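dumping this here before i forget
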Amino acid sequence: MQDIQLLLDNNAKWAEEIDRENPEFFDKLSKQQKPKYLWIGCADSRVPANQIVGLLPGELFVHRNVANMVVHTDLNCLSVLQFAVDVLKVQHIIVCGHYGCGGITAALKGEPLGLIDNWLGHIQDVAGKYAQELDGLEGEARDDRMCEINVIEQANNVLRTSVVKSAKAAGQELNVHSFIYGIKNGRLKKLGENMSLSA
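structure:
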């Protein structure tokens, strides 16, 4: 229970510090949510979305899952996407993966792990699509390239959703971006070109 109390104590210190620095912060935060960005990232605890892009709470709408997947049958991800696009009117959707992703490594190894094997199967499908490129690589280089490929594929999946297609048809300004994060150096890197959906 001491571990949990530590979290509560840390929260109290954080809230006091924010209140001291900006007494209106929590009042403003409680009245509206108007982020420009939706972040679809990995659940990995080493990739804190707000912090690595220097944004405050309320400035980044976040969805996270193992290996930053956008699966067309995942109603959780699709519901977040629809809320972000239709209600919050975000202007940018960022799919962000990271090097050293355990989900990617596990999918490439293909060893049975249990329930998560069903989820990792989507990554294995992507790996199969790029088998020729990946077969020329080994070890960390192979894993890193697969992390990059997966991000781009998931951004393409965002573009194929009914939510994004409807936004495009309505002329809504919306851009999809592919980022990858280096845990070893704390840096984000853009992959590919922005995918603009503005009319």
